[in-house]
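Subgroup meeting minutes
Present: P.N., E.W., G.H.
Scribe: E.W.

1. P.N. recapped why we're keeping a running log of single-chain structure predictions: easier to compare across weeks, and new members can see raw inputs and outputs side by side.
2. G.H. added today's entry (64 aa).
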Amino acid sequence: MTFTLDGNYVNNFFNIGSTSTDLVYNVPVYANRSLSNKEHTLVIQATPGFYSASTVLFDYVEYT
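Output recorded in log:
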């Protein structure tokens, strides 16, 4: 997955190292502790991986 915040690239997340098809839970994929107190736009985009396919199963967001 590729993350952009307010139109700027900020991070990638790759779940690699396992050929298992088991789902992995409770894995933070993006965290930012330095956001200003204003409206932001976060875009999460699936990007092709090693197998030329990508799946994103969105579970939850935590905002504190």
